[in-house]
């Protein structure tokens, strides 16, 4: 399982995401970015930051 904490990239955001793989995390984060952060599209540099912050869940 993989995990990502949005606060690692967006200070103050407490949302976390868990999925079987990186692509699953990225899909959930894209919906969150749109719905909660107002991003119609996630810029490539932000995707890279998210990818770099995804960890293996304990």
From TrEMBL:
This is DUF1059 domain-containing protein. Pfam families: DUF1059. InterPro entries: DUF1059.
